[in-house]
């Protein structure tokens, strides 16, 4: 608990209180507005958000289930580290005890084939680009945050397998923790605009399916991702609102979670600097 | 043209710069040309859905999906790497 004392602890506590109040009051306000299954309001308004019902469903629920999935990864990483022992993760508290020693992972970089030596790095870099493309494509496809995180960390793992300790994709400890923290914090903070404007936590004020927010907010959060859909029946406009931003935060979150597991298991962990 | 066609490319560029700064590898001219060439091929392969009327898929070459974010992400990674030198 030492890490939670001081300024960081106060900030964490305040953030936790705000999020808890927001979530609970949102749940309380939802009383009577949500029907079992897909509501009539939802069916009536879904086409205004996305070109088809599947995409609409994905827009609304994808981000939320992914947040819980990420929590599962964090717990999985923590439990793995605990099971494997202090040989891999050595925290301050355990310093007085002798750590469990294990042989470091053996990298045999000299055995790389010519193809892997010359195409391994471009493949890893292109995987990163592909991951970014997936997450930025969420304005037309709904999800993408989790997939992006998995693809980016796959690139990291690929480079680590090929080049060992001289990993050209050098996601350091501070970088991975920073990315994870920005993702988690960003995800939580993106709930605030909706809460302040409507009283519903993480209400999508960009898409505004219930027509609750002033037009200026609708424009600010909706227009950056607005697309036109030109059909024989006419021109339709749709926007995913804040969903792409949620997906980017989620991608950062997943990169932090999986990246930390890879980092700890490949290169070991200590509280000292990198 | 709608903002939704441009914003993802800009975000991809910024994310590319962020992750490019973490690269620890000397990028040669040949490597940069290889990366951009492969990105163009990948953009054609993974292009956006045609119904969204992207810049290339909708206006210039209808029926062809072309993913600008993938190319801007690669360019961002290269620039990020050069900035970190």
From TrEMBL, chain A:
Principal cellular location given in the protein's record: membrane
Residue intervals of the Na+/H+ antiporter MnhB subunit-related protein domain: 123-258
Protein origin, superkingdom: Archaea
Membrane-related topology note: Multi-pass membrane protein
Entry's Gene Ontology cellular component terms: plasma membrane
Keyword Transcription regulation carried by entry: no
Subcellular location: Cell membrane
Residue spans crossing the bilayer: 9-27, 71-89, 109-132, 144-163, 175-195, 242-269
InterPro entries: CPA3_antiporter_subunitB, MnhB
Keywords: Cell membrane, Membrane, Transmembrane, Transmembrane helix
One Pfam family hit: MnhB
Name the record gives this protein: Na+/H+ antiporter MnhB subunit-related protein domain-containing protein
TrEMBL record, chain B:
Domain of life: Archaea
Record-annotated membrane-spanning stretches: 6-25, 32-53, 59-83
Keywords: Membrane, Transmembrane, Transmembrane helix
Protein name stated in the entry: Uncharacterized protein
């Amino acid at each position: 608990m030492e890490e939670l004392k001081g300024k960081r602890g106060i900030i964490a506590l305040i953030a936790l209180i705000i999020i808890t109040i927001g979530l609970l009051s949102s749940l309380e306000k939802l009383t009577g507005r949500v029907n079992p299954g897909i509501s009539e309001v939802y069916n009536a308004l879904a086409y205004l958000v996305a070109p088809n019902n599947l995409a609409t469903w994905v827009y609304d629920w994808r981000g939320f289930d992914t947040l819980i999935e990420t929590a599962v990864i964090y717990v999985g990483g923590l439990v793995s580290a605990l099971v494997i022992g202090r040989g891999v993760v050595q925290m301050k508290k355990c310093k007085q005890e002798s750590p469990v020693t294990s042989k470091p992972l053996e990298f045999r970089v000299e055995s790389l084939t010519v193809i892997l030596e010359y195409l391994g790095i471009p493949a890893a870099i292109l995987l990163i680009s592909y991951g970014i493309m997936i997450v930025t494509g969420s304005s037309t496809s709904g999800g993408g945050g989790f997939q992006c995180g998995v693809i980016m960390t796959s690139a990291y793992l690929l480079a680590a397998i090929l080049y060992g300790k001289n990993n050209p994709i050098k996601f350091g400890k501070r970088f991975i923790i920073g990315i994870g923290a920005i993702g988690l914090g960003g995800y939580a903070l993106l709930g605030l605009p909706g809460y302040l404007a409507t009283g519903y936590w993480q209400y999508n004020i960009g898409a505004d399916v219930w027509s609750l927010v002033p037009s200026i907010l609708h424009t600010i959060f909706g227009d950056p991702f607005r697309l036109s859909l030109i059909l024989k029946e006419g021109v339709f406009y749709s926007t995913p609102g804040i969903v792409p931003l949620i997906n980017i935060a989620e991608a950062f979150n997943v990169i932090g979670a999986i990246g930390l597991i890879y980092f700890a298991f490949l290169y070991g962990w200590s509280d000292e600097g990198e | 043209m709608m903002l939704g066609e441009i914003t993802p490319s800009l975000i991809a560029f910024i994310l590319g710069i962020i992750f490019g700064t973490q690269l620890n590898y000397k990028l040669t001219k040949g490597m940069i040309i290889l990366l951009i060439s492969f990105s163009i091929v990948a953009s054609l392969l993974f292009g956006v859905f045609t119904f969204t009327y992207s810049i290339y898929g909708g206006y210039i070459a209808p029926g062809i999906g072309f993913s600008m974010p993938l190319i801007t992400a690669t360019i961002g990674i290269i620039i990020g790497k050069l900035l970190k030198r």
